[in-house]
UniProtKB/TrEMBL annotation:
Pfam families: p450 (PF00067). Gene3D superfamilies: Cytochrome P450. It comes from Cryptomeria japonica (Japanese cedar). PANTHER family: CYTOCHROME P450. Belongs to the cytochrome P450 family. This is Cytochrome P450. Its cofactor is heme. The lineage of its organism: Eukaryota, Viridiplantae, Streptophyta, Embryophyta, Tracheophyta. InterPro entries: CYP11_CYP27_families (IPR050479), Cyt_P450 (IPR001128), Cyt_P450_sf (IPR036396).
């Protein structure tokens, strides 16, 4: 396998300079084994899908899905849908706590919530009405797919020449088969229902006329993308809130002011829950689930007067940047959501967290 030099960027100004030159097709060197897996099965997949592909194939996928996903109206319409899943997690919070400790330790309920959110959004399925065995299998196979993806990228090259001898590739193969079977059956079923509430799905299939195989691969990818990211973020958020009584009290006050117990949460409420939003941002600053963003350069570019040639892996070190005191992060290791009330004082903050 070709070795690449790695350039780490620790200064947000350099990250900005880099991102601005990233071009129409940002190139990620990741998910290469999944790409092989999908390209080996042309009867099921048109290509590797959004995560695996680069350049025009990535652009094709991105173009198909991003408009509806980024539409504020669609996001707003989906907030109420997720309320049911969120309430189920709230009811189970006690089961998530570690014995005799005030911290989140048991992840099963949180994984179920994360899986449930994606299933609700894209397949209009209520995870709490599925059989326990099926839910356990889906969560396990998603873990396996993620472990297989990381393993083939970071731990073993064997799959390149001898896929059958690479345990990580085997894991990926086996788990992707299960996920494909589940998602494709569900998509078929939703298609035949006259009044499906799976709005994204019906828009993609019946208004945008996307290929069913693309939609299936996209939903599999979002199930993978949404499991660990949102679970660990929510667990960290809950831990911070649990440990900070003053913040907990002020959140409770804010929520009582804007949201009555019987009401379903809507976009209108979220706009007003400013402290809650700041707690989430502060959690993502202190405990980002991804250390940064990676790219492989495809052409020469310049950062801080240094020329960076093609084929260099560039990693933006968001996690390090987010603990940097000189960027207005006073007391950077402390959970201080109120710092986000004044975020405009630091122009770089929005660039790396929300880009
Ligand atoms: C705390 C939660 C999450 C974090 C921190 C996060 C972070 C990221 C990051 C850093 C990337 C790479 C962006 C890049 O290479 O430029 C990414 C890509 C992506 N994520 Fe997430 N993610 C989260 C949750 C989710 C969820 C819940 C879904 C789907 C339901 C999702 C779907 C995707 C997709 C489809 C991409 C590929 C986008 C593209 O290539 O255009 N993510 N995410």
């Amino acid at each position: 396998m070709k070795n690449h030099s790695i350039l780490h960027l620790f200064d947000p100004k350099d990250v900005e300079t880099f991102v601005r030159q990233d071009g129409k097709y940002p190139f990620r060197r990741s998910h290469r084994a999944s790409l092989k897996y999908r390209l080996d099965r042309p009867e099921l997949y048109l290509d590797g899908g959004l995560f695996c592909e680069n350049e025009p194939s990535w652009y094709r996928q991105r173009n198909q899905f991003h408009q509806r996903l980024l539409s504020i109206q669609q996001v707003a319409a989906n907030i109420e849908k997720l309320d049911e899943v969120n309430h189920a997690l709230i009811d189970q919070i006690d089961n998530c706590l570690e014995k005799n400790r005030n911290t989140i330790g048991n992840f099963q309920a949180i994984y179920m919530w994360a899986l449930g959110s994606t299933l609700k959004l894209f397949l209009d399925l209520n995870v709490y009405k599925l059989e326990d065995e099926l839910v356990r299998t889906l969560i396990q196979e998603l873990h396996n797919s993620l472990t297989g993806t990381d393993g083939t990228e970071i731990k073993s090259n064997k799959w390149l020449k001898q896929p059958s001898k690479c345990p990580y590739y085997g894991m990926l193969e086996q788990s992707q088969e299960v996920l494909y079977r589940f998602v494709s059956e569900q998509v078929e079923q939703r298609k035949t229902e006259s009044a499906s509430n799976a709005l994204y799905l019906s828009d993609w299939l019946f208004k945008d006329h996307l290929k069913q195989s693309d939609v299936i691969s996209f939903i599999i990818d979002t199930l993978m993308a949404g499991l660990h990211t949102t679970s660990y973020t929510v667990a960290n958020l809950l831990n911070h809130i649990a440990n900070e009584k003053a913040i907990r009290d002020s959140l409770q006050k804010e929520i009582q002011e804007f949201l009555s117990v019987q009401e379903s949460i809507t976009k209108h409420h979220i706009d007003k829950l400013r402290s809650l939003r700041s707690c989430l941002k502060e959690t993502m600053r202190l405990n980002p689930v991804l250390i940064g963003t990676g790219r492989l350069t495809t052409e020469k570019l310049v950062v801080r007067n240094y020329e960076i040639t093609a084929n260099i892996i560039v990693i933006t070190q968001n996690q390090v940047i987010s603990l940097n005191e000189t960027l207005n992060f006073y007391e950077p290791n402390k959970f201080k959501p109120e710092r986000w009330f004044h975020y405009r004082t630091c122009p770089h903050l929005t660039i790396w967290i929300w880009s």
